[in-house]
Amino acid sequence: xxxxxxxxxxxxxxxxxxxxxxxxxxxxxxxxxxxxxxxxxxxxxxxxxxxxxxxxxxxxxxxxxxxxxxxxxxxxxxxxxxxxxxxxxxxxxxxxxxxxxxxxxxxxxxxxxxxxxxxxxxxxxxxx
Length: 128
What we know:
Belongs to the BTG family. 50% of the residues lie in helices and 18% in strands. It is of the alpha+beta class. It has a four-stranded antiparallel sheet. The protein is globular and about 40 Å long.
């Protein structure tokens, strides 16, 4: 779970960094807070033997409304929801699943894979 949550938190942090206006130290703290927030939130909803189980619960979503997990991490570093809306895409979907992290920007955007574990196909094909 650490690798997947690190990939997700790193991606959101990169979006903030690209938008500008947030200092590097604050970005680093945001990334750490978001990673920890995701790990805590997913603690009882992480099923490596059934990676798609709980996928909806683990979906991070901004759709003209801020995802509460991103909002919580931002609040921990003093970044307001209003500022987040200025910096992040208005529509972002981030799927954080065992062995894979993917995202889509916009409702009609393509799904892109951020992280895929080499174990993903091995575990699925072996029935593990």
